């Protein structure tokens, strides 16, 4: 078959057009697919050198900084610190707060200051509202208290600053397990102390549950730098469990019979925590009491006295 020049030209034109159309379909710069091909890669966040952060932190401490400056430094670098290095910084922060508490307490130890605070404080008042106050001296004192990570408590009718452990809550996911457990214990204490002015402020079952958590910490984290502080707290709870408080005694002063709510709470705790050394001791105590219709016998009194004296 002979193909003419016109036919050859026609077929050649068709082929060129086909290639052009196909190329346009494959490489259309306006299509979403092509846009994906030319997207700029995501920027990787710049990380800081941990060694340099630790050096900067130590240099900051050497300048006798305000507590608020230390908190700000830790917050700015927390993402680039290992759990161990962050824990060390948290330990330093708490120690500095404990040291600073002494000087701050002196500023509150004034009848004039307490009279002014008595006019300010109410259930609706929070330290966040301090700038609305008219008294400049009180405003300055409360701002200093808040900036340093403290809050106000009332002890025997006097306003006193205490460490606000809620400022540490943001660090819980990032510190070591031992520090996390310690801060959780202190957070509970910070939110509600167990007793004040001789009165038990929490229920008997809460009292036992807190003691069990402290006992577990002592067992699991014996090498922690905070072990002595938790042991001291634990001993206080053990005393409350076996004695009660001055205004919330474990035994009725008129009848001498053990508080029924405490009896129920203790029995349940013993059944649910039989591996606990504390609950084993408490079980022996309840047995002695049961033998005397839950009145405090000489044998039960001697048992608890010996238990406390060994602490």
Question: What's the arrangement of secondary structure elements?
Answer:
Layout: H1 5-26, H2 32-37, H3 50-61, H4 67-77, H5 83-108, H6 111-120, H7 136-147, E1 150-155, E2 158-163, H8 177-191, E3 195-196, E4 199-200, H9 204-220, H10 227-243, H11 260-272, H12 277-290, H13 298-309
Antiparallel strand pairs: 1-2, 3-4
Helix pairs in contact: 3-4, 4-5, 8-9, 9-10, 9-11, 11-12, 12-13
Report the end-to-end length measured between terminal Cα atoms. 115 Å
Low-confidence parts lasting 5 or more residues at pLDDT below 50? 1-38
* Radius of gyration, CA atoms, in whole angstroms: 34 Å
Q: Largest sheet at a glance?
A: 2 strands, antiparallel
Helix % is: 55-70%
DSSP strand tally? 4
* The number of domains: 2
Strand content: 5-15%
Q: Helix- and strand-based class?
A: mainly alpha
What is the N-to-C order of secondary-structure elements (H for helix, E for strand)?
HHHHHHHEEHEEHHHHH
Trace the largest sheet across and list its strands: 1-2
- The global form is flat
Kindly report the average pLDDT value. 86
The number of helical segments is 13
Describe the overall structure:
- Mean pLDDT is 86; it is low at 1-38.
- The protein folds into two domains: 51-174, no CATH class; 192-311, no CATH class.
- Strand 3 (195-196) and strand 4 form a beta hairpin.
- With 311 residues, it is mainly alpha-helical.
- It has helices at residues 5-26, 32-37, 50-61, 67-77, 83-108, 111-120, 136-147, 177-191, 204-220, 227-243, 260-272, 277-290, 298-309, and strands spanning 150-155, 158-163, 195-196, 199-200.
- The chain has 13 helices and four strands.
- The protein is 60% helix and 5% strand.
- The protein is flat, with a radius of gyration of 34 Å.
- The chain has a two-stranded antiparallel ribbon with strand order 1-2. A two-stranded antiparallel sheet has the order 3-4.
